[in-house]
Amino acid sequence: MRLSRYFMPILRDAPKEAEIVSHRLMLRAGMIRQEAAGIYAWLPLGLKVLNNITKIVREEQDRAGAIELLMPTIQLADLWRESGRYDAYGKEMLRIKDRRDREMLYGPTNEEMITEIFRANVRSHKDLPKNLYHIQWKFRDEVRPRFGVMRSREFLMKDAYSFDIDQASAKTSYNRMFVAYLRTFARLGLKAIPMQADTGPIGGDLSHEFIILAKTGESEVFGHNDYLDFETPDADVDFDDAAGLQAIVDRWTSLYAATEEKHDVAAFEALPEDRRFAARGIEVGHIFYFGTKYSEPMKAYVTGPDGKDVPVHMGSYGIGPSRLAAAIIEAGHDDAGIIWPDAVAPFRVGLVNLKPGDSACDAACEDLYAKLKGLGLDVLYDDTDDRAGAKFATMDLIGLPWRLVVGPKGLASGVVELKRRGSSAPEQLSAESALAALSR
Amino acid sequence: MRLSRYFMPILRDAPKEAEIVSHRLMLRAGMIRQEAAGIYAWLPLGLKVLNNITKIVREEQDRAGAIELLMPTIQLADLWRESGRYDAYGKEMLRIKDRRDREMLYGPTNEEMITEIFRANVRSHKDLPKNLYHIQWKFRDEVRPRFGVMRSREFLMKDAYSFDIDQASAKTSYNRMFVAYLRTFARLGLKAIPMQADTGPIGGDLSHEFIILAKTGESEVFGHNDYLDFETPDADVDFDDAAGLQAIVDRWTSLYAATEEKHDVAAFEALPEDRRFAARGIEVGHIFYFGTKYSEPMKAYVTGPDGKDVPVHMGSYGIGPSRLAAAIIEAGHDDAGIIWPDAVAPFRVGLVNLKPGDSACDAACEDLYAKLKGLGLDVLYDDTDDRAGAKFATMDLIGLPWRLVVGPKGLASGVVELKRRGSSAPEQLSAESALAALSR
């Protein structure tokens, strides 16, 4: 993409309203724009990040055997009356009346609707287990929306729902998502630690939050250091192997780890002092097993092997890609701007032409731009008339993994300059060597 | 995908509420499920089709130089007061109050919001032309939603917005989208004819609808037959060549073509009788040039080359991917079900195992399934216990381009059966030959 043709409105100054670093950097980098309190437009650079996150989330859901569908944003109030949550949900639910005065709502979550879809179509234990997920915009009318997309009102959520014949099978479905989440966060460049959690309005008695550590995190978390060195399950993990999944979950829940609410000071202090951490954390995923909480009142029954109807055992599993975009910045930035993990970066390479209009610089840049694209790399080519200093500041701010600089002086001695974001020193090398390095 | 693990709830009978064939077939094939009047969930098969459509729409927008972003679904009423459309829009607009009694709405279109984003960030003619688009769910509270996703309340829309310094440049931006639309519909397997159109609540004085012909279309259209043989612009069409674009638009508007509202009987009857058609049509895209209708009241000004501020000239360009899914079915089906164009089909191949549990059939199917996936083909493998007749009926209903049948009798004589959806006769051939045919 040529920057002269792109739409990336950089702000030189940090906006006053932004209280946390990810919000400031997302506004400054032209990733998002607030359209109303807690409601954001995703500008092109932000949307690319959001899509990169979503793609990884989707691939890992698919790998774990979950099936994607897409539920609408607007739901009927009556559906929520069936579960008893319509009145219970409170003011966070955005309630709407249509032109015929029907009571509707903007879905804050989808347990009711997916249960309705399931019960209308699945009748037999032979069709189980099933895990259905979607990635859709949700709305929660927070009393005080803030922190940018970290706690917005309209937000993107991947929510999966599992259906099983009994609790034992449901536990395996839960473990599948547990393992898929470990893989998802690792691929996003994050160290996420599962922690036992309260279930809140979703309900149920088994639940884990996945927490990443970030100095600027929203809450305090405590745990055993060894988690940080645990290896993530391989891409070829067998999601049909219940015992194998359980072994992974056992290992990832074997050591102490807790959020503030669940913190057990005595257990924590029993850990060797050099093997424990007390740090700031950000919740990036939350999984629940809640049994028959929705299937019983909503009559989502299937016929069991013995011919008797039983309510299905359910779980739900959430990841917020829009929140993750901010969380990844909280976990990766410096004073100059964002430092994206490779898998999430909006472009892999920022190609900087120090002297547009200079025929040697233009020719070298066009050649590199074409060749980098030929290698399948996504490139942002700064072909604008800005000063060199402003160009460097912009590249640091938007945090692309690689910066490739072409200037008349370097070209005269046959070199360009390659720098990895976050590393100290740029490297002078031939254009060919730079291409070879970037293709690795 | 193994059908035994998939979620594709087939209905044997046509649902009574469905008045048109695409609605009936989408319900029967388990593509969609109604969640409220005019509000649908996209079940896995339907979502795959929707995503295939969206991918092509996106690729052609990108090719034409449009830049993708994503605006939220919920908007502030005040924004619409600036353009004067808040009161004018009527009951089709879904109006909402949040917990603080702020007046909001579910966006039915985005001219106001994109103008707000533009004016906040673009100040100079040097940054023009720009075309910004998004693909997002919209809501129009139709008084009588019907025809399934053809006329639903919550629907997916690609809407692009162009910004230019003057009318001449804006016309080129308009032509870019005109050409992009020709390419988009051709890639979707459709013959779309541009026709002059009224501008309705969007406003402006230049507008084209893109209409496809389908026996079951919603309205009558009239035109010159030669349009049906026109060649679509190549993938390497130069979107920076204003004269070249104008020549394509001139050619595609050179002959008579009109919707009912714009029909000129005398002009139509002046055509040679064998070179004219009167047929049913479906609108699949609509483009508008409306000049400064929004930029003036909303003060979207840029500094021109002479240093003076001028309001930008704008156009907007819509395609509804959710509506297209239905329109493509209206244009391609038979009594047995849907006939998908290759580019849109949810799977390329339906692999039918006539005798699951038979070790030879299972082994041959597993081998073909793995090899087809290895070829990069998306395969739906029917490994269920259904009767052969039901399996064939399902495959015809869901309309995959290729059906590959493996049975014990054929295997004994070394053959499998390959059939193209819509063609008359299946072909008996070796598994290797079938793979070779499908890899072409």
Plain-language structure description:
The structure is a homodimer of 440-residue chains. With 440 residues, the first copy, chain A, is of the alpha+beta class. Chain A folds into two domains: 3-338, Bira Bifunctional Protein, Domain 2 (BirA Bifunctional Protein, domain 2, 2-Layer Sandwich), CATH 3.30.930; 349-439, Rossmann fold, CATH 3.40.50. In chain A, 32% of the residues lie in helices and 27% in strands. The first copy, chain A, contains 13 helices and 23 strands. Chain A has helices at residues 21-28, 44-63, 77-83, 85-88, 111-121, 167-187, 242-252, 265-269, 321-331, 359-374, 388-398, 408-412, 431-439, and strands at residues 32-36, 39-42, 67-68, 74-76, 94-97, 103-106, 130-139, 154-164, 192-196, 206-213, 219-224, 257-259, 276-291, 301-303, 309-311, 313-319, 333-334, 337-338, 349-353, 379-382, 402-406, 416-420, 427-429. The longest helix of chain A is centred in the middle third of the chain and has 21 residues, at 167-187. The two termini of chain A are 21 Å apart. The mean pLDDT of chain A is 95.
How would you summarize this macromolecular structure in one to three sentences?
Chains A, B: It is found in: Cytoplasm. The structure is a homodimer. The first copy, chain A, contains 13 helices and 23 strands.
Topology:
2 copies of one chain form a homodimer.
Chain A: H1 21-28, E1 32-36, E2 39-42, H2 44-63, E3 67-68, E4 74-76, H3 77-83, H4 85-88, E5 94-97, E6 103-106, H5 111-121, E7 130-139, E8 154-164, H6 167-187, E9 192-196, E10 206-213, E11 219-224, H7 242-252, E12 257-259, H8 265-269, E13 276-291, E14 301-303, E15 309-311, E16 313-319, H9 321-331, E17 333-334, E18 337-338, E19 349-353, H10 359-374, E20 379-382, H11 388-398, E21 402-406, H12 408-412, E22 416-420, E23 427-429, H13 431-439
Parallel strand pairs in A: 3-7, 19-20, 19-21
Antiparallel strand pairs in A: 1-2, 4-6, 5-6, 7-8, 8-16, 9-10, 10-13, 11-12, 11-13, 13-16, 14-15, 17-18, 21-22, 22-23
